[in-house]
Amino acid sequence: MTIDLFKQLGAFVVLCAAQALVFNRIHLFGCATPLIYIYMILKLRRNYPQWGALLWSFALGLTIDAFSNTPGVAAASLTLIGAVQPYFMRLFVQRDAAEDLKPSIHTLGFTKFCFFTFCLTLLYCTVFFVLETFNFFNWVQWLLQVGGSTLVTFVMIITFDSVSKK
User: Fold this and answer.
1) pTM for this one?
2) Structure confidence by residue, pLDDT tens digits, 3-38
3) How far apart are CA 100 and CA 91, in angstroms?
4) Which of 122-127's residues contact partners 24+ apart within 8 Å by CB, and which partners?
5) Which of 51, 53, 61, 69 is nearest to 16 (CA)?
């Protein structure tokens, strides 16, 4: 249990630092920003306590908000992802699977993990940019931001997960 806590804390620090120092400065074509920190919430194991998932999500979102100058946007969006992640996982994990299964390409299979990741990333980016923009006057730019950030984040998460060890 304590080793798992230290792994989570390490992932928290590494993903926050990577987002604040590197990924916040990347704006492909002026609209696509990688939001790689959601990887930590996507990787929460099956049957992780709901209060723990919400606490990690909110803390990670609040830390990202502090470094990214997005007051409350990442915290609200990531808390939503932390709340719905177990329900999405039920759609892709068989009932007889291990209780402590961590979603990855190796455990779910490439197609299921890709669909799981894409759905949650799209939901996150949609909520994030709706809260950040808070209007629909420039909906083309909003669609480009949601689509571009979803695609870039999805590709980076799949890449990170495929090169990580089992």
Assistant:
1) 0.90
2) 888 888 888 898 888 888 888 888 888 888 899 999
3) 16
4) 122/146, 122/150, 123/80, 123/81, 123/84, 124/35, 124/38, 124/77, 124/78, 124/80, 124/81, 125/35, 125/149, 125/150, 125/153, 126/150, 127/76, 127/77, 127/80
5) 61
